[in-house]
Fold this protein.
Amino acid sequence: MSNTTTVTLEVLRYDPERDQEPRFQSFEVPYDEDWVVLDALNWIKDNADSSLTYRWSCHMAVCGSCGMVVNGEEKLTCKAFLRDYLGRGPIRVEPLRNFPIERDLVVDMEGFMAKLESVKPWIIREEEKPVEDGEYIQLPKQLKRFKHHTLCINCLLCYSACPQVGLNPGFIGPAALALAHRYNLDSRDQGRHERQEVTGSADGVWECTFVSACSEVCPKHVEPGGAIQEQKIANSVDWFLDHLIPGRSNAGRTKE
Amino acid sequence: MDVLQTDVVIVGAGGAGLRAAIAVAEADPALSVTLISKVYPMRSHTVAAEGGAAGVIKENDSLENHFNDTIGGSDWLADQDAVEFFVEQAPKELTRLEHWGCPWSRDPDGRVAVRPFGGMKIERTWFAADKSGFHILHTLFQTSMKYPSIKRLDEYYTTDLLLEDGRAVGVLSHEMRSGKPVVVLGKAVILCTGGAGRVFPFTTNGAIKTGDGMAMAYRAGVPLQDMEFVQYHPTGLPGTGILISEAARGEGGILVNKDGYRYLQDYGMGPADPWPRKKAMELGPRDRLSQSFWQEQQKGRTIQSKWGDVVHLDLRHLGEKKINERLPFIRDLAKSYVGVDVVTAPIPVRPVIHYTMGGIASDITAGTPLPGLFCAGETACVSINGANRLGSNSLAELLVFGKVAGEAAARLARSVPAPSEASALAQAKAHRARAEALVDGSRGTEAVATIRRDMMATMESGCGIYRTQEGLEQTCTTLRDLRRRYRDVKISDRSWVFNTDLTQALELGAMLEIAETMALSALLRTESRGAHQRLDHPQRDDAGFLTHSMAWRQGDEPPRIDYKPVTITKSQPAARVYGGAAS
Ligand SMILES: Cc1cc2nc3c(=O)[nH]c(=O)nc-3n(C[C@H](O)[C@H](O)[C@H](O)COP(=O)(O)OP(=O)(O)OC[C@H]3O[C@@H](n4cnc5c(N)ncnc54)[C@H](O)[C@@H]3O)c2cc1C
Ligand code: FES
């Protein structure tokens, strides 16, 4: 394919001030074997149509801004290389699914932000340790239990891919539930019970039907699907024990 | 126009802004904080930091060591009172972050692990694998959610400071999704808007690092300090400029030229021990390493690649296990963006624009010459970095001075009355007219992308690793012309909904002014110090230039530059010593 000189991008356009509904617009973009889809969008913005609207910043797959649907699949466009789409017709670029479109490729993520906050993603302790007393001891194996769940960049690819988010927009969803699990598993945290009120609610872990589309599209191997299943088990065990041992649910719980 | 009254206004929700917001909330939960950002907090560029944050914690280290390394690294241009305070506070701040849940990498006994970094005599850089900034940012962001007094305005692009009787009393922001203006008034304002690496074409800095806050302060009459000092990081991926962290060298990576030779030994950094020696060879400071690349290039000893000249960063001898444990992101980035598996092949790298040492003139109090205005993070020039920042000092800096700024703003907010709306509104309306004229398309002929490209090109050619009078004069002339052309800039997007054509035009306006302060400060500094190297003035000149440059805006004319003394307490300027002589 070294003689390829241009590629065609079909980009979804939608301006709520002007358009009744979204439409596609085609752009012919110079081809460079090192370019990612985001480079092509930037080329369009600088050379063809400066009104094209999308989010990006880091261009190194860590800020989570540039998630879109490319040829039907959720991708970080700063890591989706044009060379991987050659020979299959135009490259279709659409905003993430399951979110309202704000404009062109930009979706409204306010709902997600509220879900993130709802799981109380911070260390909860009965007593804070003074800074002067130094760090908490956390063994490498304790860190390993939750480390992969800390890697979420909030790119929202999982919300776009999740069929349950599509059916129930209230579903707290993969990234936020994985984050709750991350804190629950942290040896410094004592807030699991408090979080369970949210994660165990009707919009919490039980909404998940374990299709695992989230884990498949996740660019950072956070394994939200697994995190949700583990919480289902933990919540069931807690429920069971709470009913067996009166007074247990009120006691502060620490981890080993 | 909507007006929002709050106690403390913070612009910027990266590491510095979030730390400042939490500091206000902890100092006094009754104070309301409005935290404004042009992107959602977790998109802020702190997210990209890889290597780690410096703070003395191990028994073999001392605050004095960290102080001396930082002062030497700064080529004696850092203010020593500020550095002394900084090294004392850094370990506390890093510990606090540990308590807030930051997943720092650990030693086998469960204590926080540290790694060596360039220009540091002893290993003292705390790290979370090679995503330290990512974890710091997310930990701060998530922790910030527990304080009800912090209200965020996410995706609000801020353009101007508003003043009353010579004090900062608020800002004008634009809600991006609607384009609506909003005036946010407060008793204190903190700018945490990050650096300005985007004035150059080849940079590790994300798209948002356009120096908006520096330009806002500058337009409000605050001087920009030490703007000639811009850091090149020695190891960026060619093509994209993606950073390969200094951690790769901290863990033992070596740099070789086209003959497989560790060329740094030819530039006073030897001996070329097989093991990593602190403050030597690959663990020298960034200015020296980037300059050595340029020298090798002159000698024709760099490697020709399809992306231009590079050298090789070789990690193979570290082995797959260590690489996966300590540098997994580096492995992933190199594989994706240059097709190299670092376990089996060396990585092509070259110097890349990375960090703005200069910024809004500030000091140990996080205050600025404008009453009511504070700043912290990369946008501020305290200065603990002087002529050359040491890697891993800035993540610690944004925590230390973010907190100072928040606490100082809280104190002020409790002691002054709320500003009045009338005068702020009048200023806001005048500023807003600029955005309106752009969007209604009533004027303009010059495209944003063209002016921006020309600006970047002239910055690269005149303000690079080595500079000359002639090159700098040319750049100053070109920038002046570009500022003139910018007055006639046009955008084609006529919608108010998420108009990124508009924000890019406004960012370009900020960058042009900042670029001009960089080039002119560099032209007038006729010496070589740290990251500012003049081929025509190769020596450091303490008699003439042991001073901070201060750039004052003069309307459409180039800035006026004057100088402010460096605070020296206990370390008299001396020769910078690296390599074998340093140990
Ligand atoms: C790739 C990379 C790796 C690095 N690695 C390290 C490292 O290992 N160790 C280290 O110490 N340092 C490192 N640094 C440097 C360090 O990460 C930065 O200096 C630091 O994170 C800057 O933080 P900040 O809070 O000042 O700014 P940022 O994190 O850049 O945040 C700026 C904030 O300001 C907001 N903002 C800007 N303009 C406006 C506006 N007009 N209106 C509203 N909001 C606005 C943005 O939205 C953002 O929230 C690295 C830098 C880079 C680029
Ligand atoms: S631009 Fe940051 S993740 Fe793609």
